[in-house]
Amino acid sequence: MEQIRKSVSVPGAITILALTLASLGSVQAKDVTDADILNDGTKNTNQVVTYGLGTKGQRFSPLAQITPSTVKNLVPVWSFSFGGEKQRGQQSQPLVHDGKMFVTASYSRIFALDVKTGEKLWKYEHRLPDGIMPCCDVVNRGAAIYGNLVIFGTLDAQLVALDKDTGKVVWKEKIEDYKAGYSFTAAPQIVKGMVITGNSGGEFGIVGRVDARDAKTGKLVWTRPVVEGHMGFKYDKEGKQVENGISGTTNATWPGDLWKTGGAAPWLSAYYDPEVNLIFIGTGNPAPWNSWLRPGDNLYSSSTVAIDPDTGKIVWHYQTTPHDGWDYDGVNEFVSFEYKDPKSGKMVKAGGKADRNGFFFVNDRTNGKLLNAFPFVKQIDWAKGIDLNTGRPIYDDKKRPGNPFTEGGGDGKKGEVVLNAPSFLGGKNQMPMAYSPKTGYFYVPSNEWAMDIWNEPVSYKRGAAYLGAGFTIKPLHEDYIGALRAVDPVSGKIVWEVKNNAPLWGGVLTTGGDLVFYGTPEGYLKAINATTGAEVWKFQTGSGIIAPPITWDDGGEQYVAVVSGWGGAVPLWGGDVAKRVNFLEQGGSVWVFKLHKP
């Protein structure tokens, strides 16, 4: 009987065990919350879930285990190759959450890796159609995470949301028609449960636009065009489009119908400051490049635009290059920081921007008022300075490319060629800078180069290049093009610089350990003393770095990671500069480092 009783009692035990196992099995991987996003990089240092290590985009981490004295012990932990022949430029900033790293790669790919070992957990490779038209290489700058989704954009202008644990597609939405020249290369940002995106394609006469979608479903919440004259929309629960006001005033700063193909693509990431509840995003060049065809300021091209996330309306704008005639896109990041006004001594909620046009701008982030502006490169030709009272450039009219309709014998073929610095690739381009609240400096990856530029006649054709300009890029110095610069936003002074032979095209990270990390096209990840500018460490990754580093901690250890893979705009558009760096090799990998324990 005892044996029978035991055998009878077993099924009950099995049932309890099964229920227990089922309960354990139902424990889900951690979702990414709004609080995770708002605390990223500062309070939550064991993760990186935003492009910029925080919604303000400072790229500062308080982590201080790695310092100028300990960095000599920084060694690789693992490296992962993106594989295949699909190399080209690799500009992705990795994300880290719940034991996984999510990193995008060229040709619209994304990988999930075990953050401790580098083991591949899954890969999604977007099927790209023939005829995509990315202007500046087949790059991707990163993803966003929200809930159980990882979301990234593709070169055929789509957004794809994947289950972050399995890699399975949850939703997919079209941003715009790639056949008209639209594409997407930026990292999306999450703001109040919405995924915020711009678009790429400014060289094709597209219309720049910022979209907000429900991050869980992909459905549109609102859209805001950033070319004056276009209607914005909100969307109800059924997806019905409701008018939400025209951007600006039709024909106020654009002549005729040119606003209909006005460019101004916001092709880099948006940033968000919860303190003022505003989204900040930069807008690209007006189309066409030939400014003689479009008199006026051409709003909202080449600007910083502040948008209310709740209404989808523009709250303020500041145009860094009105009536742009040099392709000085204003897309560069607007980084929120606290600015001590030297006149009043008061702290101001401000934002800093190292613009492509060579000037560094400081604006009140509540209303856009200009607080300071100064050069961060050594040679600027197109303007003599920025008028701090009006906020407008002081143009050198002789440095605007000549009018092809009145010059060159009146044949309308080519206007006067002018030399301008910086080149259209900018005093700073897509590579994000960093700001340290500890030192009060911005760390700006800058470039010194010039261009011969001229205007030509052009007419719009859907899906065709819409420039009306020609150019040749030239180095200004024999010994360097790139320079990492520590910039004081209050004094306007360059505190220190580290010169580099090739152009700098990767982003910057700064830490509470008084270090600045950045990569070079020559393949080095470098660490610089944040106060003095002294180089204290470097590591050769095997290919050029054109991506921003990140850092996080896990189990009491600080890690650093960066993506390596030469490419981007420089070898495609760089002219004489491209020839100077044509020895550099392509690649495609991510490297992870931590301190070696003796």
TrEMBL record:
| Species | Aromatoleum diolicum
Task: Give the Enzyme Commission number.
Answer: 1.1.2.-
Top EC category: oxidoreductase
Where is it located?
A: Periplasm
Similarity comment: family membership? Belongs to the bacterial PQQ dehydrogenase family.
Task: Tell me the Pfam families matching this sequence.
Answer: PQQ, PQQ_2
Signal sequence span per UniProt?
1-29
Do you know which InterPro entries this protein is assigned to?
A: ADHI, PQQ_b-propeller_rpt, PQQ_MeOH/EtOH_DH, PQQ_rpt_dom, Quinoprotein_ADH-like_sf, Quinoprotein_DH_CS
Question: Keyword set for this entry?
Answer: Disulfide bond, Metal-binding, Oxidoreductase, Periplasm, PQQ, Signal
Please name the GO terms that the record assigns under molecular function: oxidoreductase activity
* Cofactor requirements of the protein: pyrroloquinoline quinone
Q: What is this protein called?
A: PQQ-dependent dehydrogenase, methanol/ethanol family
Query: Where does this protein chiefly localize?
Result: periplasm
Q: What are the residue boundaries of the Pyrrolo-quinoline quinone repeat domain, all occurrences included?
A: 50-371, 483-551
